[in-house]
Amino acid sequence: MAAAEATLGDCLEALLSGRSHANRVFDILELLQAEEAEVVLSAIRTCSRLFGAFLQRGELFVGQLPPEEESLPESYSAEEKYKIWMRHRYNSCVHCLSELMSHESFQIKEAALCTLMKFVELEAARPLVQADWSLNFPRDLLKLVVKGLISAEEDSCLLISRFQEYLERDDVRFFAMKAVAENIGNVMQKTKEPLPIFQKNAFAFLSSVSMPSEESEIKNFLVKHANQEEWKVSKLKEHRRAFERMWLGFLKHKLPSSLYKKVLVILHDSILPHLNEPTLMIDFLTVAYDIGGAISLLALNGLFVLILHHNLEYPDFYKKLYSLLDPSIFYVKYRARFFHLLDLFLSSSHLPSYLVAAFAKRLARLCLAAPPDALLMAIPFICNLLRRHPSCKVLVHRPGGPEELPADPYVMEEEDPSESRALESSLWEIQTLQRHYHPDVAKAAASINTALSESEEDLTDLLELTSYEIFDRDLKKKATSVPLEFQRATGLFGQKNDVLADYFTLA
Fold it and tell me: How many domains does one find in the chain?
């Protein structure tokens, strides 16, 4: 290790002091492929200093680089030939660093990434390609970095989180989004099957992109221009277009189920607000809503945004929403989110009575087999529906209504709420819950016997209630004396006139 560091130090000093020892650059590049991690790290640091200095000094060829295999025309001066030769060495270094981004050591991955991004910044200040001022950004180099981050072989999420600080630069984020969209297209078009590792890395990258909400926020650039205002990278609309293309390119391919859920969790607040045309997500969301289970629950958020703000028409929306009410709804991870949205969707006073009655009745039936934490949320939810829609109070105040399951006209298996006959039934299930083993549930169910107040009950805290919280709350309750139906023992044998009572009196 010490010998390698000495060699690297000597090579760096010789290369920076003059051109007579230019071939020693091969010694540095060779050590980038060493087996010892410490040697590789030292070689990366040396390359960073060496080529960083060359880029700042302007000692690399600028323009269309001639192929290395071809002999250069006599028109090139010795100075230009040297710069062309060193530019090829720089390209070799860049490719080695991009390969090291998949090294088994995270330290080496991180060092390679940071060095490449240093080169991006230096190339942005002194472009190696002569082009129009608007094309000075080193996009090809950034594409290599993005390709290394979105690996198809190993999890790169930690390295992507390290890259997030570079995404704070508006132009880096803009060109990175374009590079990701191109990379996803190139990789996924070769196969119709999901690529779990690649798609997981791609999602980690996409979800790490934090978009500006106002054009005035776009002011942190890596590349500065005299006429910055005319540069399209300074336009919010262009950023949204790149963001939209990136996400649509990712979502048009089949996703693993776990990734599907992660996308839907962030879709409504991290993706839809930053699209030029949010309605382009309609197909994705409606397909997700039709899948069923947890995926349908998560698609509700995105659909709600499109229905509320973008005039989405979904004819069978409430029919599908009704079908999502099954016994598993009280046990899923996203229960609180679902009931929050369900409350929003049933808040309109223009909904027909049969529809609200069907939801209230179905929830009441599901409550018969629900855990206490779910019941303490569901019962007030049903009461709120009755407060909101007084025409449904007939479910409570129906003389001679069904009091048990066989006599109930309600058809639980019916998928269409209009055909469920809920308005012909009653909420006898809530009356049944008044005899629940948990006193808090029985008390909540008993509230339906009295006249309901006009103001709705706040469900915010109840939506997040868990069994652990109920158990912990019960443990903290202070015990009170309870009347018991037995005689207290007064003697050793429990008899009033026990001969030993005077000696063995129980406290």
Answer: 2
Task: Characterize 105-133 residue by residue with b for buried, 16 or more Cβ atoms within 10 angstroms of its Cβ, and e for exposed.
Answer: eeebbbbbbbbbbebbbbbbeebbeeeee
Number of helices (H) and strands (E) in the chain: give both, helices first: 21, 0
Amino acid making up residue 396: V
How many CA atoms lie less than 13 Å away from 374 in the CB half-sphere?
Answer: 20
For helices 257-266 and 196-208, what crossing angle results, to 10°?
A: 10
| Nearest-angstrom CA–CA distance, 67 and 437 | 83
Q: What is the pTM of this model?
A: 0.80
Q: How many CA atoms lie within 13 A of 192 on its CB side?
A: 0
pLDDT, residue 501, reads: 54
**pLDDT, mean over the chain:** 85
Residue pointed to by tokens 């629900």: 370
Residue tagged 């336009």 (tokens):
235
Q: What is the DSSP letter of 412?
A: T
Q: Do 72 and 84 touch, CB atoms closer than 8 A?
A: yes
In a domain, 214, yes or no: no
Q: What is the DSSP string of 268-315?
A: IIIIGGG-S-GGGGHHHHHHHHHH-HHHHHHHHHHHHHHHHHS----T
Average pLDDT value for residue range 132-157: 84
Q: How confident is the model at residue 448 (pLDDT cuts 50, 70, 90)?
A: confident
Q: What is the pLDDT of residues 372-388, one digit of tens each?
A: 888 989 999 999 898 88
b/e string for 245-267 if b means 16 or more Cβ within 10 A? bbbebbbebebeeebbbbbbbbb
Tell me the Ramachandran region of residue 231: left when phi exceeds 0, alpha when psi lies from -120 to 50, beta otherwise.
beta
- What single string gives the DSSP state of each residue in 308-356? HHS----TTHHHHHHHT-SGGGGTSTTHHHHHHHHHHHT--TTS-HHHH
Instruction: State the amino acid at position 95 in one-letter form.
Output: H
Supply the pLDDT for residue 229: 55
Specify whether the CB–CB gap between 377 and 363 falls below 8 A: no
- Assess if residue 144 is contained within a domain: no
- What is the Cα–Cα distance from 140 to 239, expressed in whole angstroms? 19
Residue 449 lies in a domain: yes
Containing structural domain, residue 418: 332-480
Give backbone dihedrals phi and psi of 224, rounded to 5 degrees, phi first. Answer: -100, 140
Least confident piece of the model among 179-188, 268-277, 453-462: 453-462
Q: Is residue 368 part of a domain?
A: yes
Domain boundary among 96, 111, 130: 130
- DSSP label at residue 457: P
Please, which pLDDT band fits residue 507 given cuts at 50, 70 and 90? Answer: very low
Residue with the bigger pLDDT between 357 and 66: it is 357
